[in-house]
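User: Design a sequence. Structure:
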């Protein structure tokens, strides 16, 4: 069911949405093309080399990108049609273009580069290569999501729901590396849940988990904390506590090691806009953790509603909201799929708490990554966008999946917890207003 709906939805959207209309899609397109020329990262100046025929496209895109591309490029200087913009022969030689996604490793661009490479191999023009990159990205992400749904030991409906959110599908049917980021994170969650249900883990299982940790949690910075899901595996599955400790440590070290390698390979001698170096931001967070948490909490209060709607779907360059009915359907469906399904789930309370806790920790590591890589030192903003949170929402929904709130032992703590949070929020509002 998922594959049929997703293929129809995705393929139509590949061609329905005009080129460059997904956030940062031009930057991702440049990286995918450069990868087919053997440029795995930007140079030390943070630039990539492209054919001179890309000059008009790069000039138009870079001129508009800071404010976000308008829904239509008609009337913009340098634009007559997408065919002319992409396929312009241009002068001979190459150009250097500053990459705004240079801190990302090459893994998130492999499917797109495959599509571009196949197009170039048969002599297709760049615009055709662009659509081939979108299709390859879509197929790779859908394959991961299909496997995730097959692997998930429970809550398959939730995996389907998150995978088919309008925002998720918008990213999957693009050239953005967010497609592999989201699909990879969801696949990783399903993989660990499935492995945690086995009686024993074979060597091939252990090797597969280690490879997934190193690769899928480093497509983009911030999703490292998903590796904590390996705590769901029991020592008895690995033959004892010593092997279990080695398994957990190896996963953590591989995630950290892969990040360090990518960080070093993508280091440049320039800074993004006015942003300080990531090292300076991380030092600020380490030295003043409470200040950073205060900044994050302020952003949560001001942005949670926006992030939630963006998670469901605010399309284009975050300017095209869905119908209000669509948001209601997703919110009601999410809660209904979580607590209304009659599937028997054997997850104990501690495993549910662990899932919810890991969701929160992933949110924090995302905040650290966004603050370190995108914001100037001491900034009061954490630049979240809703699409980043798909794995977080999935973990939260899985943590309550199958709970029966008519059970008084579960229902009362839930109600009391909600009321205490409401009371704390009320006090904070009053203190801010009357005792600043």
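Assistant: Done.
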């Amino acid at each position: 069911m998922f594959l049929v709906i997703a293929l129809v939805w995705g393929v139509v959207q590949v061609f329905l949405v005009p080129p460059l209309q997904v956030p940062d899609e031009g930057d991702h397109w440049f990286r995918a093309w450069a990868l087919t020329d053997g440029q795995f990262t930007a140079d030390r100046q943070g630039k990539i080399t492209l054919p001179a025929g890309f000059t008009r496209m790069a000039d138009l895109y870079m001129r508009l990108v800071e404010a976000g591309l308008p829904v239509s490029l008609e009337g913009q200087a340098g634009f007559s049609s997408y065919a002319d913009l992409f396929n312009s022969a241009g002068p001979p030689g190459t150009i250097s273009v500053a990459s705004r996604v240079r801190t990302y490793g090459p893994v998130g661009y492999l499917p797109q580069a495959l599509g571009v490479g196949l197009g170039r191999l048969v002599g297709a023009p760049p615009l055709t290569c662009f659509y081939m990159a979108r299709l390859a990205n879509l197929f790779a992400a859908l394959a991961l999501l299909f496997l995730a749904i097959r692997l998930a030991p429970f809550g398959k409906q939730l995996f389907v729901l998150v995978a088919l959110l309008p925002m998720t599908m918008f990213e999957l049917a693009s050239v953005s590396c967010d497609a592999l980021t989201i699909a990879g994170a969801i696949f990783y969650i399903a993989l660990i849940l499935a492995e945690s249900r086995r009686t024993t883990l074979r060597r091939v299982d252990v090797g597969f988990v280690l490879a997934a940790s190193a690769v899928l949690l480093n497509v983009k910075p911030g999703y490292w904390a998903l590796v904590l899901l390996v705590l769901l595996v029991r020592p008895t599955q690995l033959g004892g506590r010593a092997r279990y400790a080695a398994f957990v440590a190896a996963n953590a070290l591989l995630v950290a090691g892969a990040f360090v390698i990518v960080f070093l390979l993508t280091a440049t001698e320039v800074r993004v806009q006015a942003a300080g170096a990531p090292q300076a931001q991380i030092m600020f967070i380490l030295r003043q953790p409470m200040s950073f948490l205060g900044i994050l909490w302020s952003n949560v209060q001001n942005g949670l509603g926006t992030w939630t709607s963006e998670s469901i779907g605010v399309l284009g360059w975050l300017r095209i909201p869905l119908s209000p009915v669509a948001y209601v359907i997703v919110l009601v469906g999410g809660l209904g799929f979580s607590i209304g399904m009659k599937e028997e789930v054997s997850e104990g309370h501690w495993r549910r708490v662990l899932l919810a806790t890991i969701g929160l920790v992933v949110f924090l590591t995302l905040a650290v990554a966004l603050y370190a890589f995108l914001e100037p030192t001491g900034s009061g903003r954490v630049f979240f966008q809703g699409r980043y949170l798909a794995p977080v929402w999935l973990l939260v929904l899985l943590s309550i999946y199958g709970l029966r709130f008519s059970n008084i032992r579960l229902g009362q703590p839930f109600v009391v917890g909600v009321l205490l949070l409401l009371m704390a929020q009320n006090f904070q509002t009053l203190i801010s207003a009357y005792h600043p």
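Confidence is low (pLDDT under 50) at residues 271-275. Residues 22-135 form one domain.
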